[in-house]
Specification:
By secondary structure, the protein is an alpha/beta fold. Helices cover 37% and strands 21% of the residues. It has a 5-stranded mixed β-sheet, with helices on both faces. The structure holds guanosine-5'-triphosphate and magnesium ion.
C-alpha cells in the first residue's frame, strides 16, 4: 500500500499522467478502478498499452479500449513499436514554453552505501518530503531513482541507489541488477556521497565502495549516518574522524 500511496502522490503532483497497461494480459478490475480514481484528478491521461509487439497483438486488445475514452497507445517498449508516435503526441500537449527552457544540466550526486544505512532517508530529508520508500528491511531500494532538489535557484540531482553488498550474498535477480546499477551510478554522476552507518563503521564493504569512488576520480563526500545511536563523549567525533 506504500507503493500505491506513492503512486497516487506522484499523480497528484503531475500535469500529465501516463497510465501503463500490460497488453499481454486482460485488463484487471483494480486497474480499471485505479484509472477511474485518477480520472477524478481532472488531468490529461495517456493510456498506454505496452508489450504490443506486433499488429496481431494489437488486434487482440479489447477491454483496454474501455479506458482512455477509446484512445489508447499500443506500444512495445522492448521492440520500440509506436514509440515515436507516443513521443510526438506527448510533445503536442506539452506547452512550448516548457520545451524551450534549456536549463543547465543539474549536478548529479550519487547517494551510495551498504544496505540499510539510511540512503533513501537522507534523500527524503534533503528534498523535504517522503519521496522514497524507507524501511528497516534491508534491501528496500531496488533501483536507482533520480530526485531533483533546488538550492539557491540551482538544481541538483540526487541519485538514490540500491544498497551495495556482495553479489554472492543475494539470490534476488532484481537486487543484483540494482547493485550493478548502483556501482554504475558512481561512474555517471559528478559527486559521490558515501553513506555509512556510524554504529558499524567502517566495514570492508564501506572500503570497497570508497575504493570504487576513489578510482572514479570524482569528489567523494563521506557521511556518517545514525549519529543519534552513538554514545557520545567529549572527542567522539574527533575519534571518528581519525578512523
Ligand atoms: N536511528 C536512526 N535510524 C535511521 C537514520 N536514518 C535512517 N534510519 C533508519 O534506518 C532504516 C533504513 O533506512 P533507509 O533509508 O531505508 O536505508 P537505505 O540505505 O535506503 O536502505 P536500502 O535501500 O535497503 O539499501 C530505516 O528504518 C530508517 O528509519 C538515522 O539517522 N538514525
Ligand atoms: Mg533505500
Amino acid at each position: 500500500s506504500q507503493i500505491r500511496d506513492k503512486a497516487k502522490e506522484a499523480a497528484e503532483k503531475a500535469d500529465i499522467l501516463l497510465f501503463i497497461l500490460d497488453g499481454k494480459r486482460d485488463l484487471l478490475p483494480p486497474e480499471e478502478e485505479l484509472y477511474f480514481s485518477l480520472k477524478k484528478l481532472n488531468k490529461l491521461i495517456f493510456v498506454i498499452v505496452n508489450k504490443v509487439d506486433s499488429l496481431s497483438d494489437e488486434d487482440k486488445l479489447g477491454d483496454h479500449y474501455r479506458l482512455g475514452e477509446g484512445r489508447i497507445f499500443a506500444i512495445s517498449a522492448e521492440h520500440k513499436r509506436n514509440l515515436e508516435f507516443l513521443k510526438s503526441s506527448l510533445l503536442e500537449v506539452i506547452p512550448s514554453s516548457v520545451q524551450e527552457e534549456k536549463e543547465p544540466e543539474p549536478l548529479k550526486i550519487a547517494i551510495v552505501g551498504r544496505i540499510n544505512v539510511g540512503k533513501s532517508s537522507i534523500v527524503n530529508r534533503l528534498c523535504g518530503e517522503e519521496r522514497l520508500i524507507v524501511s528497516e528491511i534491508p534491501g528496500t531500494t531496488r533501483d536507482s531513482t533520480d530526485t531533483l532538489i533546488f538550492r539557491n535557484k540551482k538544481a541538483f540531482c540526487l541519485v538514490d541507489t540500491a544498497g551495495i553488498r556482495k553479489l554472492g550474498r543475494t539470490r534476488d535477480k532484481r537486487e543484483k541488477a540494482g547493485i550493478i546499477k548502483a556501482k554504475k551510478s558512481i561512474v555517471r554522476t559528478d559527486v559521490i556521497c558515501l553513506i555509512m552507518d556510524a554504529q558499524e563503521f567502517p566495514t570492508r564493504q564501506d572500503s570497497a565502495i570508497a575504493h570504487l569512488s576513489h578510482e572514479s576520480g570524482k569528489p567523494l563526500m563521506i557521511v556518517l549516518n545514525k549519529w543519534d545511536l552513538i554514545r557520545k563523549e567529549t572527542g567522539t567525533s574527533e575519534d571518528f574522524k581519525e578512523q
